[in-house]
Each structure stands twice: as C-alpha cells, then as structure tokens.
Amino acid sequence: MGKRILVLAEEKDGKLRNVSLEALTLAKQLSDGGEVQAVLFSEQAAAFQAQIGQHGAGLLFQIAGEAWKSYTPDAYAGALVQLIEQVQPDVILAGHTAIGKDVAPRVAARLQIGLISDCTGVDVQGGELVFTRPIYAGKAFQKKVFREGTVFATLRANNFAVAEGGGAAKIVPFEPTVPDLRTIVREVVRKTAGTVDLSEAKIIISGGRGVKSAEGFRPLEELAAVLGGAVGASRGACDAGYCDYSLQIGQTGKVVTPDLYIACGISGAIQHLAGMSNAKVIVAINKDPEAPIFQVADYGIVGDLFEVVPLLTEECRKALQ
Ligand code: FAD
C-alpha cells in the first residue's frame, strides 16, 4: 500500500534549498504510488508551487503569518505538530539543516513518533523503509527500521538524487493556532553575504593551520571563485583566528558532502575527517608526505599550498574559459 509522505521544504534567499528538492524526490520514490505533500513556511508559496510539484508533491501546505516569518522552535514545532495531527503522514522528511535538526526532535517528542536524524540513505526492503545514518563520527553506519507509527527523518544534504517529473502542486493554506512563543526574532543580521552555502556546496576548498594567516586564505578564495565553490576550514584555522567559526568543518563544525573537497594545509585529524570524509572526491595539498589526510585522499599533492593553489587556480581558469 502506498505511503503518505510529508516534506518540510525550506526556502533560503528566495530559493528552495537543494536538500528540500532531494527530500521531495526521495518522498516520491518511497511513497510507492501514495501521496507526497509538502509544507512551506513562506509568504510566497505560489513562487515555489511549480518547482515543488515538479519534484513530486501534489499538495503544498502554506503556513504564512507574522509568527512564522523567522524560524523559532516554538512557532515551527507548534505549527508542524498541528499539521501532522491533521494530515497523519506515515513519514515526514526534512533536510538535516539548522532548522531541520532543531525542529524534528521537538516534533517527534511531542507527538511520540519515531525520529532518525542525519540519514545518508533510505531503502525499501520487503516493504519496509530502512534508514541509514553514520555513527561514531562517520566510522560506522547504523541501519534502522521503524515497524510502527510515523517516523520523522532528517536527510544529510547532497546524498540523494534530485529528479523532476510532476505538475504544479496545489496550494492549501494552513492556519495553525499560534503557540506560546518564548522567543521572538526582532532582526536577522547576516554575517556573510553572497557566498555559496557550505552545507550544500558541490565544491569546497578548505584551509587549515597551514594557511598561516587570514591573508593566507586569499588563494583559496580565488580558487573557490573560479570553481564556483565555497571556502571551508579546519578548527585549527578557526582557533588560530584565520577565519570565522561558521566555516569550520568537522565533528563540532559542519558536516559536508560535496562532489569535490580540496584540503589545503590540513593535517587530517579524526575530528576533521568526521565532517568531510564522505565527500565524493578528496584532494589533499600538504607539505608533509606523512600527513594523515593523505590516507583518505583520492589525490594527494605533496607541496607548499602557496605554490600549488595558485597554479591550480590558473589551470582551472584556463580549462573553464
Ligand atoms: P594542524 O594539525 O596543525 O595541521 C596543519 C597542516 O598544515 C600540517 O599537516 C602541515 O604539514 C600543513 N602545512 C603547513 N604549512 C603548509 C604549507 N605551506 N603548505 C601545505 N601544507 C602545509 N578539528 C576540525 O577541523 N573540525 C572539528 O570539528 C573539530 N572538532 C574537534 C572536537 C574535539 C572534541 C577536539 C578535541 C578536537 C576537534 N578538532 C576539530 C581539532 C582537531 O583535533 C585538530 O586539532 C584540527 O583539525 C587541526 O587543524 P589543522 O589540520 O588545520 O592543523
């Protein structure tokens, strides 16, 4: 029998997050002829109606209003609980984003439903959904099956295919009761603007303590600009004050899964690998041939990053012209 799957879609900077498109595509596959529905907290649901429909959802619940203009845990969790009680989905999917990982456990706890976070795979085996997620900082994978009730799963970005094929979704305004709000967002101040979002970037150029200064990040930024990628960092570089902590990748930073990860002057500590070892292709540039990063790298360049990175940038610029 087909499943009813609800997808929490997220809008960022006027666009749907790519992981929301991954979630919709996955929902379509898993629904097995059932229903795919999406929910979007947005004043502009009509702008996303076609795209959400093309990626698999037949219905789009729009939640709009002052209480939902910016994310707050009480407002989002309260609204989602009310929607889920009404819709009764078998599965709820969301991106493992800042919002997804904050709201999913709150909703799951209030509704007493299953929760599985940071999934890197979902398969159907014998009619059951088998969720895969990394554990022990990515050293092992856990497979989980929920035999009863609804399950809320958050998905790690860049791990699922995106496909189109449907028509436009029908918008259904959903007007939840505004819950008691313990926090109110007065203003959102952006730290960085115009850069590629690290958690969804397909190409990441990352710098470690080997870049030696904030100025040392410039060659990496140039390479990222040529390749259309984002700049990341190790905690070593953040702790040394070379860059902002928002760039930190690893166990206590962001977990990324780009197609290409270029690690420059990063030794490859286990806590750093926890955040990037699932990248599809890893290139390491380090002047120490014994650096542990070479054990996980697909391509290793032993050399001074200040010589290698500009050469790489020049060659990429020529190749992409
Ligand atoms: P280093 O280990 O100092 O390595 C610098 C590298 O640069 C060396 O390999 C050196 O050979 C190379 N180098 C130097 N100059 C050049 C040059 N000119 N050209 C090329 N190569 C050069 N770390 C993280 O990254 N992310 C985390 O989330 C994280 N969480 C942590 C959580 C805990 C609880 C703990 C205890 C630690 C955590 N760490 C984390 C820290 C981690 O253990 C390492 O200390 C850190 O990753 C080291 O950063 P690094 O590789 O930049 O620096």
Automatic annotation (TrEMBL):
Cited SMART domains: ETF
Keywords tagged on the record: Electron transport, FAD, Flavoprotein, Transport
Domain of life of the source: Bacteria
Species name: Brevibacillus brevis
SUPFAM superfamilies in the cross-refs: Adenine nucleotide alpha hydrolases-like (SSF52402), DHS-like NAD/FAD-binding domain (SSF52467)
Similarity annotation: Belongs to the ETF alpha-subunit/FixB family.
Domain Electron transfer flavoprotein alpha/beta-subunit N-terminal: 5-193
Gene3D superfamilies (UniProt xref): HUPs, TPP-binding domain
Name under which the protein is recorded: Electron transfer flavoprotein subunit alpha/FixB family protein
UniProt cross-references to Pfam families, sorted A to Z: ETF, ETF_alpha
